[in-house]
């Protein structure tokens, strides 16, 4: 066997090994991506009533969503609660998140994406929601301007 044949054989085996390693790495990467939460934005409503709580919010701060079945304005209201237990607003009635949580009973992981309107009289909140991760939605008693 000539030197060129031996080198070609080693090179071909090296390419095959590299390709196999690459495919295994990509399969592991895809699995990791499936397990990682995919966050989607959600602008909440009613923030003008909860400005004192919103002033303390920071991006990536965890938020809990809870159902308020005794809410006099909406028996399917979903409140957004900061990690100190304060209401910061509500999930809009026509939101895709509300449908997923109430009809499909999906779990969710929620965090603050941004506080909007810094320096203005009232500030808003945009959340990030990852469905299929975290906890299923809980319940609480409605509290006016909590």
UniProtKB/TrEMBL annotation:
Methyltransferase in keyword set: no
GO terms of molecular function: hydrolase activity, acting on acid anhydrides, in phosphorus-containing anhydrides; nucleic acid binding; zinc ion binding
Keywords: Hydrolase, Metal-binding
InterPro entries named in the record: HIRAN
Keyword match Hydrolase: yes
Top-level taxon of origin: Bacteria
Domain HIRAN intervals: 44-118
Protein name: HIRAN domain-containing protein
Lineage: Bacteria, Pseudomonadati, Pseudomonadota, Alphaproteobacteria, Sphingomonadales
């Amino acid at each position: 066997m000539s030197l060129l044949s031996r080198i070609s054989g080693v090179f071909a085996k090296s390419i095959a090994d590299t390709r196999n390693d690459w495919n295994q790495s990509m399969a592991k990467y895809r699995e990791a991506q499936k397990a990682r939460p995919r966050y989607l934005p959600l602008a909440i409503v009613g923030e003008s009533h909860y400005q004192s709580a919103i002033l303390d919010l920071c991006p990536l701060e965890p938020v809990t969503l809870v159902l308020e079945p005794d809410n006099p304005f909406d028996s399917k209201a979903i409140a957004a609660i900061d990690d100190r237990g304060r209401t910061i607003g509500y999930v809009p009635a026509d939101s895709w998140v509300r449908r997923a949580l109430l009809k499909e009973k999906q779990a969710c992981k929620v965090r603050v994406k941004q506080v909007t309107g810094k320096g203005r009289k009232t500030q808003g909140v945009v959340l990030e929601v990852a469905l299929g991760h975290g906890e299923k939605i809980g319940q609480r008693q409605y509290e006016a301007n909590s």
